[in-house]
Amino acid sequence: MGRSIINLDNVYENNLGMMAKIAKIVYPNQQFEESFFSELFKGGNDKKKEAYMAQIAYYSEIPVGTIKLLLLQKKKSDSLQKGLHIELLAVLEKYDDHEIKEKLLEYALDECKKNHQHKLFTATRSSDEQLMNWYKEHGFTETGSKGEPVTLSDGTSEETVLLIRELD
């Protein structure tokens, strides 16, 4: 059996910049603070340290997508429920039709199972109908709740819609 042309690999400190680059290319109007990426590698003995997971997707050894997840073991608010939160799912437009998003979503679903979580959720910009429809096609439903607003590169903010997928 041949090797898959699409592969996922962990995000390490030395390729964190690639993750950031992909995110900024896919979402050029969204402002990402450096801490959004660097929090993956927080050190120290903080007992309340949050559990992040991240992957970079490669298409024929070219980095083309990324995902960042946050494990929430307790409900923090209506927009941050108990479960696994997709904080970032980004695939370069040229590779959007190569099943890469699906492979990254599969990774998130596997992490839910490994961590005994029954909910996978994300907050998507309300203006991004294409991404919202993609999530709905993959089993997510709108909750009626708003997610945390995102800050755009021009300094304004935009509402987000909370989408959730219940797992067995």
Automatic annotation (TrEMBL):
- Name by which UniProt lists this protein: N-acetyltransferase domain-containing protein
Source organism per entry reads Candida glabrata (strain ATCC 2001 / BCRC 20586 / JCM 3761 / NBRC 0622 / NRRL Y-65 / CBS 138) (Yeast)
Show the GO MF annotations: protein-N-terminal amino-acid acetyltransferase activity
A GO BP term, please?
mitotic sister chromatid cohesion
Q: Which PANTHER family match?
A: N-ALPHA-ACETYLTRANSFERASE, N-ALPHA-ACETYLTRANSFERASE 50
* InterPro entries membership: Acyl_CoA_acyltransferase (IPR016181), GNAT_dom (IPR000182), N-term/lysine_N-AcTrnsfr (IPR051556)
UniProt-listed Pfam families: Acetyltransf_10 (PF13673)
UniProt keyword terms in alphabetical order: Acyltransferase, Transferase
Please verify whether the record's keywords include Acyltransferase: yes
GO CC, any one term:
NatA complex
Ranges where the N-acetyltransferase domain occurs:
6-168
TM segments?
none
